[in-house]
Amino acid sequence: MSEPLRLGIAGLGTVGVGVIRIIRQKAAQLEARTGRKVVITAVSARSQKDRGVPLDGYAWEADPVKLATRDDVDVFVELMGGADGPAKESTEAALKAGKDVVTANKAMLAEHGQELALLAEGEGRVLRFEAAVAGGIPVIKALTEGLAGNDITRVIGVMNGSCNYILTRMENANLTYEEAFAEADGLGYLEADPELDVGGIDAAHKLALLAAISFGTQVKFDGVQLEGIGRVTIEDIRQAADMGYKIKLLGTAQMTGRGLVQSMSPCLVPATSPLGQLEGGTNMVVLEGDHVGQIVLRGAGAGEGPTASAVMSDVIDIARGLRLPTFGQPANTLKTTPSANSGTPAPYYLRMTLHDKPGALAKVATCLGDAGVSIHRMRQYDHVDDKAPVLIVTHTTSRDALDAALTKLPATGVLASEPVALRIEEV
Ligand SMILES: NC(=O)c1ccc[n+]([C@@H]2O[C@H](COP(=O)([O-])OP(=O)(O)OC[C@H]3O[C@@H](n4cnc5c(N)ncnc54)[C@H](OP(=O)(O)O)[C@@H]3O)[C@@H](O)[C@H]2O)c1
User: Fold this and answer.
1) Binding residue per annotation — 61?
2) Which of 64, 79, 86, 210 is found 20 to 30 A from 422 (Cα to Cα)?
3) What atom in ligand 1 is closest to the CA of residue 12?
4) Arithmetic mean of pLDDT, 398-406
5) Is a pLDDT exceeding 90 seen at residue 125?
């Protein structure tokens, strides 16, 4: 039997406590599965309050950097969060002190992933982050191991359960965005800074990590075209449903001849597709490989149990001696690729309200036609106060052509509201 694997855990919040529970409950299985004991030697948090799990037998370190460099720690488990500050300082200190690191911290990796991966690999250590993307769904393992024989052609998914919860509640309970947001907040589903969720930032962190692994590129979070769900209205949701679609905060990453497309924005997906049927706080990641075709992974994207399950997957790999580069290939071989400044062509959903004037619709159609955007389907709803809501689904077009048409629309004088344009993603 090998020596025990000794963990130092920094952060005793939702995820940290979940990891401690699994290790306490499953000591025998862990030993059977890895051939060695997995033990916690030391822990750290800001305060020494009751956590609902026994902490006796673990040394206490107020300073996570000290914890990260202790002689009796083999693996530093970083579960504090934050892109910089103590999380980054202690991760760097652990790697430099010859420790492996497991983290759930998408913000830190999305901002500093390349630098930290280079450091880890330079020190001969591993830095693992299964829990940072889509909670309990083993998507990093799927990409770096199960699908390693493929060229990944596209990654697409719903990666923020709170946004999906809000959009689902708007549709199913006929709530406004503000009402659904307040409900999600009341249930504790939103981060302390809700903009991280509804602004799409948290999901964009995850997408940037998946893109790096999928396309062998350096993580480029600032290359994600980002739009949150704050402008989605109940009318959009109803009218999209009327046309056979659902609205989701959708992440898409794809390598094109113009560079890497990374986009996180509200999109329409067919209501009958797996993504269209995804309800509530669940996550779904769809991976497309040149040999395997399409793989759909679905599961809990957050929460104590699912996230701790993913942390344990990394710990168990280390205990078993599986040592993979952070992003699936050595960090010094990851390419720098330009970001494509617009996505691949797609059909678009356009919603606008027109003044009730003769020829108004014709003027809109001309504007679109002049920019090379052709109309696939159009629906006009009943006039209210001399204003007519209009819905248009275009044929596949580039975002640039659509924007050219949208820029010219105000000059027609027929618009009673700013048009809403949402991409339709075929999946
Ligand atoms: N919660 C989820 O469902 C989920 C899912 C996926 C990924 N993650 C990621 O997992 C990480 C942890 O999330 P969480 O939800 O468990 O957070 P959390 O409940 O807020 O817990 C954070 C923990 O870190 C401790 N901490 C913060 N600053 C510290 C410092 N300077 N020194 C020592 N300890 C410090 C806190 O101590 P005190 O308790 O004393 O304040 C707390 O125990 C984050 O990176 C998050 O993005 C979370």
Assistant:
1) no
2) 210
3) 43
4) 94
5) yes
Active site members = 206
Give pTM, 2 decimals: 0.96
Q: 337: which residues sit within 8 A by CB, 6+ positions away?
A: 215, 217, 218, 220, 255, 259, 260
**Chain segment 203-234, per-residue pLDDT in tens:** 999 999 999 999 999 999 999 999 999 999 99
Which amino acid type is present at position 241? Answer: A
Ligand 1 atom 18, closest CA: 13
342 occurs within a structural domain: no
What is the count of structural domains for the chain? 3
Q: Which atom belonging to ligand 1 lies closest to the Cα atom of 14?
A: 16
Q: How high is the pLDDT of residue 198?
A: 97
- Nearest residue by C-alpha to atom 31 in ligand 1: 86
Residue with the two structure tokens 């983290």: 103
Residue 318 belongs to some domain of the structure: no
Task: Judge whether residue 1 has pLDDT over 70.
Answer: no
Which residue's CA is the nearest one to ligand 1's atom 15? 14
What are the pLDDT digits (tens) for 40-57?
Answer: 999 999 999 999 999 999
Rounded-to-10 torsion of CA 90, 74, 105, 48: -70
Output the domain CATH number for residue 268: 3.30.360.10
Is residue 334, in this structure, part of any structural domain at all? Answer: no
Look up the domain containing 389 and give its range. Answer: 348-424
Give the separation between CA 410 and CA 408, rounded to whole angstroms.
Answer: 6
Residue 37 is assigned to a ligand binding site: no
The Cα–Cα gap between 32 and 221 comes to 39
Q: Which of 105, 132, 159 is the last residue of a domain?
A: 132
**In terms of Cα–Cα distance, which of 291, 204, 293 is closest to 249?**
204
